């Protein structure tokens, strides 16, 4: 049980760090945002799909400048049985986003992350990303 608890705690810490990195990069260094994605990643932005790191990069660079305010982050480790033993987690983020020339809008975003080895150790890479604006009901 202690091992499961440690995994959940690590998952939560990783999700918060990753979310801060992602939105800081989106707001201030968008030209390197695609480095957070795997080569074959998928992004679904308000129902519009983009596949592959290059296409995702082109899409993000086409957006106006943004300011993101994270309001909530939640994360769940993915059971090893479902990801062939690859360390993975599901991260859900919600907050406010403001694009230049537009008013602030509520959004939610879900990431499926996987751990990948590089020269400095494990890093989280996005396998799947789903972004959605929240629309107010009247």
Automatic annotation (TrEMBL):
Sorted alphabetically, the Gene Ontology cellular component annotations on this record are: cytoplasm; nucleus
Please verify whether the record's keywords include Transport.
Answer: yes
Q: Which SUPFAM superfamilies does this entry report, sorted A to Z?
A: NTF2-like
Main location as per UniProt: cytoplasm
Q: Which residues form the NTF2 domain?
A: 14-133
Enumerate the UniProt keywords alphabetically. Answer: Cytoplasm, Nucleus, Protein transport, Transport
Tell me where on the tree of life, at the top rank, the source sits: Eukaryota
- Name of the protein this chain belongs to: NTF2-related export protein
């Amino acid at each position: 049980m202690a091992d499961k608890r440690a995994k959940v705690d690590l998952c939560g810490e990783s999700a918060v760090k990753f979310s801060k990195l992602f939105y800081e990069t989106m707001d201030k260094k968008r030209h390197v945002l695609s480095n957070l994605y795997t080569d074959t990643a998928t992004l679904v932005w308000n129902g519009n799909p983009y596949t592959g790191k290059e296409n995702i990069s082109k899409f993000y660079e086409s957006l106006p400048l943004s300011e993101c305010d994270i309001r909530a982050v939640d994360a769940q480790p993915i059971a090893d049985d479902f990801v062939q033993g690859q360390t993975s987690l599901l991260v859900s983020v919600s907050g406010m986003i403001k694009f230049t020339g537009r008013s602030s809008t509520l959004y939610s975003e879900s990431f499926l992350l996987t751990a990948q080895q590089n020269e400095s150790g494990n890093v989280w890479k996005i396998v799947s990303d789903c972004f959605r604006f929240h629309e107010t009901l009247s």
